[in-house]
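A quick aside before the break. I want you to see a complete sequence-to-structure record at least once, exactly as it would be stored in a machine-readable document. Don't worry about memorizing anything.
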Amino acid sequence: MPTSMMITNRNVTGNQLGEDLADLTYYVSDQTDLMSLDHWTKLELIDFRDRLVQIARQFPKIEDTNNEQQKHVSILLHGYNETWTDAVKLYQSIQGNLYADTDGLGQLILFTWPSQGHTWDYLPDRDEAASSRSGIAQVFVNLHDFLVAAQRAAAKPNGSSPPCRAKISVIAHSMGNFVLQKALASAAKMLNSPQLITLIHQCAMVAADVDNDIFPKSLPLDSDGSLMANLCYRISALYTGRDQVLGASAGLKHFGTRRLGRSGLADPNTVHDNVFDCDVTNLIPANAPDIHSAVFENQKTLDLLRLILIGRDRNLLPVPPEP
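That is the input. The structure line, written in tokens, reads:
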């Protein structure tokens, strides 16, 4: 059974995590029932990091010619209208489908932020998402500092430190992509826009509730999209025009442009070269009960997500023609 790992800026209420903003805390669990904090062990940051390093050092050493087989440390950012137990259910589903067995992708970490959990609280949720930027930004800064230290240690002559055996990837869903957008922009500024390291290898934006024109190369270097593209080796946006949740969110706020997760990139020919989109409409069954989360609930879209995360070339992805 894989170790479950969680970072959160939610408050604690009883044996659950609540809906209010709090300081960052870190948890691990080796149990199957994760719906109570009684089944999680709270750790200090250094102990959480050491546990993660211990897990990553068990990953097999892969030659560069077999890059797709390299294991991942992945962060999952859930979306809008998610209670803590909803977020844990999504985490366990993705963990079981993509990370659990010996052929799994590696280690998945849940970052859960204080979404209000009510459909009528869209704008407060957006405020909470913006407020969560500093927490997840600090996680990315800590990750950057660790990667730089590991690279330097491995590069020393006769150094005893092994190189990092894991890729770093992110899966963000719905408004979790807005958290990611703001957090990566903040992290880039905190790190003075680093140019010498890829912080995230694969960034999968699923049903992204962000503007679909954030990635043009013509935007300033300090714009959110440019900062994101600088920190990521590749960014992929999975979208479908059948997503009525994103249609509703656009109507509720009536600002910005069309949603990336519903319309795809505004102009794919003008974006940074490491950004692309995938229309998953024809991979989702016509009778799927929840289009907004369907990428995580259907085998064809899960297979596509796995190929994206391992780094399969975009021209070789099994995406059917647009309807």
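Two observations worth writing down. Residues 19 and 56 are 32 Å apart (CA to CA). The two ends are 40 Å apart (CA to CA). We'll return to this after the break.
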